[in-house]
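Narrative progress, year one. The postdoctoral researcher (J.K.) led the effort to move from monomer predictions toward full complexes, under supervision of the PI. The following entry was the first complex the group processed end to end, covering 343 residues in total.
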Amino acid sequence: MNLFGMTLGALQEQFAELGQPKFRARQTAEWMYQRGARTFGEMTNLSKELRQKLSAQHEILRPEEQARLDSADGLTTKLLLRFADGTAVETVLMRQPYGNSICISSQAGCNMGCKFCASTLHGMERDLTTGEMFAQALHIQDFLREEGSGVDTVVVMGSGEPLMNYEALLGFLHLMHEPYALGMGYRNFTISTSGIVPGIYRLMEEGIPVNLSISLHAPNDALRSELMPINRKYPLRDVVEAGRAYGERTKRRVTYEYILIDHLNDGEEHARELCSLLSGQLASVNLIPINPVVERNLLRPSPERIRHFETMLQSRHINVTVRREMGTDIDAACGQLRNRHMN
Ligand code: SF4
């Protein structure tokens, strides 16, 4: 049985079956999650007999690093991690001025069908488990530890729609928070959703103050449905209403992501519509100039158009930032590395 990714409670059950006290389970968790142990043989404060028993009956299954790309400026590292069944996912480390931020995947591929996204081109292969999401974070934590640092913030914004893999996501958040694992505060997590309305309300009820990021990308239903098919099921007004409720209940600022696409959603009328949609809400807008998808004729607006859109939002008192680009020289756009691997 694979012990990696188990909570302390689940490990204690396994150890009880071996006739071992609970503290042995905690020691093992700390070896696996805090000290980077990949074999039981490394766990030198367990007896030799116990280490042999564990090695005979259990394993510590971690994903393999299939590919690793470092950006020329050294700030971004993109990894393709492969699990035992051959499924591969992307995980990214961004060394930001405010700390080390990682972006993890919640599903292998995605079936949401967003027009601008490479992760959905092959559909969804499968959901990831809590342990597989955790393994992505720990993979990066292990090599950061050698540099004398660690993971500071986590965004669940890689391939997949996290709120469609809800139980595994919740397990991941709890495991990352546990003191025997990474001990990270919930405020250091951001969950990015394409707007799964029931999932937003469910997350709101959990009582954990994680940040929410909602992909809007268009200020009206007609255009949003064209770009994001999920809008036909959960239309814009319901999504924004769920975002408002989430912000009010959790007291966390909700971020609306808005990919800017040349002459598609970046006009003055779009800026005005977006402002009226969000007026009165404690929210901020993150403008993301698109990584061009030439086959679909989705191109990046000029710097002047981007600046003008930003200014229009600012003049209407919307808190707005333009996303700093990182790692474009290593295909940082979601899904591109995995697609190359699959092809
Ligand atoms: S943007 Fe997110 S939700 Fe949309 S297809 Fe890509 S991974 Fe899925």
